[in-house]
Design goal:
The complex is a heterodimer. Chain A is built from eleven helices and ten strands. Chain A is α/β, with parallel strands linked by helices. A six-stranded mixed sheet of chain A has the order 6-7-8-3-9-10, with helices on both faces. Chain A has a four-stranded antiparallel sheet with strand order 2-1-4-5, with helices on one face. In chain A, a hairpin with a 2-residue loop joins strand 9 and strand 10. In chain B, helix 3 crosses helix 11, helix 4 runs parallel beside helix 6 and helix 4 packs across helix 11. Classes of the chains: A alpha/beta, B mainly alpha.
Chain lengths: 252, 336
């Protein structure tokens, strides 16, 4: 089900002061797969997302995306190549209407280039994307100020901002956190649809049950090190993972 | 994600969206309601020079200059997230470039004013771009120091007239050019910037202010946008500088004076931050006020400060925000 290798991470290091946030992590991502990143709090999951998207510069190691090195590039240049991300703490442009939020990525050179002049009306493109991501239930929602939207819609807006970039990979930093079961249930098909459209998803998650419905592969990170990588069922049986992630060994 | 295939289908939606911005199209009455304040402002600005005597015409020029600087300040602070306390640098750069070209090479003012506006803006932008890595208050502090630095530079190197300045520059041809060149520039700057803020460029600037990280993650180079915003503000300021040098036929160190940096900020606070038109109104209230208080001699500054203080305490939203609220509100007494 997975295609060519599009992201290659080799021996990634990052320390903040004396703390090793990332110590020698290596992995690959293949086109069309959904990979879950799990690990206890403070394990370095978000740091990994920040490193991949250029928000934090790695101390050492190499990140190759579609055959080109991207480590050390500024965030907007990485985003322009099609590596989009969401933020764990949502960052909408809160003073604007929801659909206006998407005008920003739609103005990036990446989108302008692919649409090559046939941009048409950006507002309608923005509304289309929002509908696709689940804003259709109430037609007025896209016109509301982003700051006034409830959490579920903000999460969708984060994803919509990524989609507007026509991404190759989307790094989701805890999209499910803080959402109710029903909200997550309505979110899952959207993510599945993204995957079917050929977008590779890397999902940092705490909600394992929901994650495992999507992810064909899971990586476990603890203290900045990758301690397991494989299909969810296998990984969760790994003793090291049980110890690190699920708590003490003796817990049944 | 083939969005291009679906676009046509939802075309009507986008019309709804756009008409939301132009909701007044529904009737002439509403359109007049919306247009009235704008027309009133334009009419007032055009009519004022006709009604004033020589002395107050000069005050009007000063007020309009401060209004443009306040506009530049408000635009940078509220829309680009850059608090620039060194507005007098723009005045100084524009004035010195224009005056020098006129004095040393004898270029006519119709060449020097536009040229100095652009050159001064480019120089001012360059100076501030170097500070762009600084954020918030640190950017503000360094921007405040830049005009002081330029003054020291001119004095220390004894160039461009040093402390004396350069006098006998060409004057603007007549009083009407004086007045209406400035009124025209102010209106272009005001309505131009307001329009720009509803365009994609303005939306991205606002996004940068709301959340620069998310703009970066959207594949937009925020530095490029900040530079463009700085250039626009510097262009407005430099034009004022070039204009002033030919209004007074003189250039000198007082072009870098703190007045040009501080008064526009006070005008912005008084007029209503983030409204663009508010700072203009603020400048047109504050400048004549400061003139009218001249009779009080030394007490003038105290009174002036008290009025400002009262405004900040009792109407912190500013004149325009208050008026706008009242204008769009419908109030009526009802029996309980």
């Amino acid at each position: 089900m997975t295609g060519e290798r599009i992201l290659e991470v080799t021996n990634l290091w990052k320390s903040f002061g004396g703390v090793h946030a990332m110590s020698g992590v290596s992995f690959d991502l293949h086109k069309g797969e959904v990979v879950g990143i799990i690990g206890p709090n403070g394990a370095g999951k978000t740091t990994l997302v920040n490193l991949l998207t250029g928000f934090v510069k790695p101390d050492d190691g190499r990140i190759t995306f579609m055959g080109e090195r991207i480590d050390g590039l500024p965030p907007h240049k990485i985003a322009l190549r099609g590596l989009a991300r969401t933020f764990q703490v949502m960052r909408p442009f809160h003073t604007m209407a929801a659909y206006k939020n998407l005008i920003v990525p739609l103005n990036s050179p990446r989108v302008r280039k692919t649409r090559s002049g046939a941009l048409g009306d950006l507002d309608s493109v923005a509304i289309d994307i929002l509908e696709e991501i689940g804003f259709e239930r109430d037609a007025r929602v896209p016109y509301k100020t982003a700051g006034s939207l409830p959490l579920g819609y903000l999460k969708r807006l984060e994803l919509a901002r990524c989609l507007a970039l026509q991404p190759v990979i989307v790094l989701c930093d805890e999209v499910f956190s803080g959402m109710s079961m029903s909200e997550i249930a309505s979110m899952l098909p959207l993510l599945e649809k993204m995957q079917m459209n050929g977008i590779t998803l890397m999902m940092v998650e705490h909600r394992l049950r929901e994650l495992f419905k999507l992810a064909g592969r899971v990586m476990v990170i603890n203290f900045g090190e990758k301690i397991a990588d494989g299909p969810p069922a296998e990984v969760m049986e790994d003793p090291a993972v049980k110890k690190a992630y699920m708590g003490a060994e003796d817990r049944k | 994600m083939e969005m291009s295939e679906r676009r046509k289908k939802r075309l009507d939606r986008s019309i709804t969206v756009r008409s939301r911005g132009l909701y007044a199209l529904s009737s002439w009455r509403e359109m007049t309601f919306l247009l009235l304040p704008r027309v009133a402002l334009v009419a007032l600005l055009c009519a004022l020079p006709l009604m004033l005597d020589m002395y107050w015409q000069r005050v009007f020029c000063a007020a309009a200059t401060y209004a443009m600087l306040a506009l530049a300040f408000d635009f940078l602070a509220q829309y680009a997230g850059l608090v620039c306390l060194g507005l007098s640098m723009f005045i100084g750069l524009g004035g010195y470039v224009s005056g020098s070209l006129n004095h040393y090479w004898g270029w006519p003012i119709w060449v020097t004013i536009p040229l100095a506006s652009v050159t001064g803006a480019a120089l001012g932008t360059l100076a501030l771009v170097l500070c762009l890595r600084l954020r918030g208050v640190y950017f503000a502090i360094v921007s405040f120091m830049l005009p002081l630095f330029l003054v020291s530079f001119i004095v220390a190197t004894s160039i461009l007239g040093s402390t004396e300045g350069i006098s006998s520059l060409d004057y603007l041809p007549n009083i009407w050019v004086e007045q209406y060149l400035l009124v025209g520039a102010l209106l272009v700057a005001l309505f131009g910037l307001r329009r720009l803020m509803t365009e994609d460029f303005g939306i991205i600037l606002q996004a940068v202010k709301d959340n620069d990280q998310a703009v970066k993650a959207s594949g937009i180079d925020i530095t490029a946008y900040k530079i463009k915003a700085l250039f626009l503000a510097a262009l407005i300021g430099s034009f004022c500088g070039a204009y002033l040098s030919h209004l007074y036929g003189w250039l000198g160190l007082s072009m870098f004076a703190m007045d040009f940096s501080i008064l526009p900020i006070a005008a912005t606070v008084m007029g209503g931050m983030g409204t663009l038109a508010g700072p203009v109104i603020g400048a047109f209230v504050l400048t004549p006020l400061s003139e009218a208080l001249r009779g009080f001699g030394q007490l003038r500054v105290v009174l002036y400060s008290l009025i400002l203080l009262a405004f900040i305490l009792y109407k912190p939203e500013g004149i325009l925000n208050y008026l706008e609220r009242k204008y769009f509100q419908f109030e009526r007494w009802e029996k309980v």
